[in-house]
Amino acid sequence: MFYVIGLGLSDEKDITVKGFEAVKRCERVYLESYTSILMVDKEKLETFYGRQIITATRELVELEADEILRDADKVDVAFLVVGDPLGATTHTDLLLRATSLNIPTSVIHNASILTALGSTGLQMYSFGQTLSMVFYTETWRPDSWYDRLEENLKVGMHTLVLLDIKVREQSEENMARGRLIYEPPRFMNPSTAFRQILLTESLRHPTKSSSSSSSSSSSDDEDGSDKPNEEPTPTLLDPSKTLAMSLSRIGTPTQRLVSGTLLELAELSEEDYGGPLHSIVIVGKRLHPLELEYAGKFAVGGEGGNWWKVGKEVYGVERETF
Amino acid sequence: MFYVIGLGLSDEKDITVKGFEAVKRCERVYLESYTSILMVDKEKLETFYGRQIITATRELVELEADEILRDADKVDVAFLVVGDPLGATTHTDLLLRATSLNIPTSVIHNASILTALGSTGLQMYSFGQTLSMVFYTETWRPDSWYDRLEENLKVGMHTLVLLDIKVREQSEENMARGRLIYEPPRFMNPSTAFRQILLTESLRHPTKSSSSSSSSSSSDDEDGSDKPNEEPTPTLLDPSKTLAMSLSRIGTPTQRLVSGTLLELAELSEEDYGGPLHSIVIVGKRLHPLELEYAGKFAVGGEGGNWWKVGKEVYGVERETF
């Protein structure tokens, strides 16, 4: 049997009882190491499972899938995946390949960031499509996430944004010289993510951004505008009027959530958010009072923070008493 | 400590090792019984956990939350929820209340249908907001799900639709007479769900539905239409051109998935889908070849089924070789 087993979000004990029993039966145990990480090291997993673990890099999974599947029709083989096993296309591919080799397969599900984002207090059912954001460089700022985010925001949905993880990356020089030397792993911090969002927003709407930084008084005849009566494009993403949240180390004892406006969250430092893994959420307009309240427990500035002000004035949500 | 612990999707062994250890420490253990069910009975859970379980009905949770939370600052109390614990608003409410009583809380996540729908082969990240469908009656056919579905379809997203579960429902007569007699539990079958979708579609677009049943040949001068050149409204939901899937008993040994057009799936019987629990998925236009291929394993009519024809002609996805 070829088992694909979800490990959940945090440590060795987040595996299900069913998954734990299966791992202990397996002759070979692979750990997928490139789409996410656990908060504990491989040795701790090996001790707990009583099994040696083979690290499955992207190269191994994509180029040597047959080696992973070898003899899985005769012995039990486990492929461990952080979170739920069927989040990434790679693993579906592996299952299709197993089926084509007449190898029986079994998927053991677990929590993933998609379910655990219930910790924000936002309702899972109100989330639209999930987005990914990669590290920007001076010359490469892929921002197709922006169009997808607008699609969600237009109909009031919340948006989960997964943040870039770089493991086993080579520097351009090492790659050019064919040296298999890898850079230290990098995990995008919410501080970076929110700044990239504000950067893309200002590049896509330069006028809006410059007009919002000018005085908001009605004496607009001084700014030389020749269309004083033109309505501005409705703002979907506004630094000080769009609410957002960060999710760090969800499911671990050091889990931290922060809620506030995009601007407030971009102004926090990397240290404010702490170590990986992180995700962020952009809050949609279809916000429920109970969602505002629960997520407000984590608001920048506490009870006096902009979270509540924007929640009321922009999102139109009145606080309820609990 | 007040623990809210996810049980996962199928049986007693889907709890995580961490959750299992917590349950065994608890003095009182509640099982939330009204938003979902496990495939095993309470007695089996009690034997496995070595703990007596108190069934938590909606009335108990909403009206006597303080009884559930009693002494949880001094002893350990567990509240078990099928799937992931933070899917439903009720449980967020319970956590807020615990915090306001200075009771420490701990959430132990698990798989939910939202993650497990990766079993369809469709990418979780391409799903839009999740919808719910209730049983229609002769006089009551709430169809606000239709507008939400259109929002998802317009931008190509897939849609998970959760199907009605009726537990501890009273008949109108028993309710009127104040008799606490409950009807047997009912779980909506995909067959019913797809028929309700077609019914609502035909009620919302009566013309389109009648014109699509007429000849599709180009001799449209015979149908008396006075606007022969007018383009029909773009079809978002078309019985024979929209792909969908059913998910039954996900995570259990009898798990069954079926994929096909809305019409094909509506024509299957309840027996074809088998026992509960079920969900369905409407496939969005942003369909990837790997998604088509994996989900196609479950196609009505197999390799010769409409799944592939519609996938190619309507969704524009060419098959790849694996």
UniProtKB/TrEMBL annotation, chains A, B:
Q: Name one GO molecular function term.
A: diphthine methyl ester synthase activity
Q: In which pathway does it act?
A: Protein modification; peptidyl-diphthamide biosynthesis
Organism's domain of life? Eukaryota
Quote the InterPro entries the UniProt record gives: 4pyrrol_Mease (IPR000878), 4pyrrol_Methylase_sf (IPR035996), 4pyrrole_Mease_sub1 (IPR014777), 4pyrrole_Mease_sub2 (IPR014776), Dphthn_synthase (IPR004551)
What Gene3D superfamilies does UniProt report for this protein, alphabetically?
A: Cobalt-precorrin-4 Transmethylase, Domain 1, Methyltransferase, Cobalt-precorrin-4 Transmethylase, Domain 2
Q: Which Pfam families match?
A: TP_methylase
Residues holding S-adenosyl-L-methionine: 9, 84, 87, 112-113, 163
Is S-adenosyl-L-methionine a UniProt keyword of this protein? yes
Top EC class, one word: transferase
Region listing for Disordered, in residue ranges: 204-239
- One of this protein's GO BP terms? methylation
Q: What is its EC number?
A: 2.1.1.314
Stretches assigned to the Tetrapyrrole methylase domain? 1-167
**Which family does the record assign?**
In the N-terminal section; belongs to the precorrin methyltransferase family.
Tell me the protein's name.
diphthine methyl ester synthase
Question: What organism is the protein native to?
Answer: Kwoniella newhampshirensis
Q: What is the lineage of its organism?
A: Eukaryota, Fungi, Dikarya, Basidiomycota, Agaricomycotina
